[in-house]
Design a protein that fits this description.
8-stranded antiparallel sheet, two-stranded antiparallel sheet, 19% helix, disordered N terminus, ENPP1-3/EXOG-like_nuc-like, signal, His-Me_finger_sf
Length: 294
Amino acid sequence: MRYPLLSCTLAVWLLFYALPGHTSVVEDFNHVERCKDSLYMGTPPRGYLSTNLKKICQRYEDKPRYVTLYDPKKHIPVYSAYTFKKSDGEKHVDFPWMFEPQLATEKGGNNMEPFPQTNMHMNFEDTQAVLEDFSDVVQYERGHLNPDEHQADPLDKAATYTLTNVVPQIREFNTGPWSDHEDRIRKRLNNYCRGTAYVVTGTTTSGNMIRRDNMDRVAIPEYMWTAYCCTDFDHNAPYFVRYKFPVFGAYALNDRINNHLVEVPIKNLEKFLKGKMDVDKNFQIFYNDCVPDF
């Protein structure tokens, strides 16, 4: 039997999450406690047509950390949006992987929680990826959308280790072009962004899935894309850097070959993504394309 009778430990654990609480799966992000501060002008990307996507204010240790738009059918994030924190790029890989109780039940806890040592209940597995989905897929790694090396505070770093913030990335792509770009952006924003830098990183899919027990479980991204917005930047920066402010984007094929990452102006990125995602003609990553209102 795939799901044995619940142990006493798991039964108590499920009862704990059935207690009333404020959910962080929200209708919108227009309040500080719903992660508004993670978004440029408090505004999320617009133009997504699907009505099944879930807005998650990613909370850890009772504090809002960043935003994720999550697809509970494909079991991957559509995008994560966060504020970049200047850092030395050090990774902390000893944090436990976590999940989102609130995706399974409206009465679930409002903080991400470490996976239990016992089996996950079907309610949770139906709504999100679980560790078993990644256990036998050696060609894929869990690739962060909000990477821990773009955060400085240990708790902000820890909050990136939830499966609602990761997607299956081809190992060679994750450790090669994608990792190189994350570090390139870290150094660029460290050195030349004077104010707050807002980042949105997302995926496109083409129907390929990780399967487990003869069931489609986790969508495999076709392309990865990312963009940053920093309106307060160093105007004396060298031109080869300065023209990539206040906003710039990038995309790459999630593959072993032909996975070269292409950096493009934000309008070019949006045009590319309109042909790859279920979005309308008004699709926009940053409010007013990161052009500040004066």
